[in-house]
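This section describes the prediction task in plain terms. A model, or a person checking by hand, is given the sequence of a single protein chain and must write out its three-dimensional structure as a string of tokens. No templates, partner chains or ligands are provided. The sample shown here is typical of the held-out split.
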Amino acid sequence: MGNKSTIGARKMIEKIFKIIEETRKSSMLSSEVDIKTCSNLRTDLELDSLALTQLAVHIEEDFNVDVFEDGMVETVQEIIDKLS
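The expected answer:
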């Protein structure tokens, strides 16, 4: 049973990383960044306010959760925590 939840969590994280990559690409940012769970959305991933808004919309579309509902999230891990 724990194996299924581990696989589900891994797929969720992969999907979040893909959404971040797509957001960075649409914002014309370099693809030369290593996305990690500890990455800061603004400083490490260079997402500005518009990109963060796009990220929030894409996450809400895919997961039906507004991760920014209770305020700003700073890291990829905070997004994962809100979706878990």
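For orientation: The mean pLDDT is 89.
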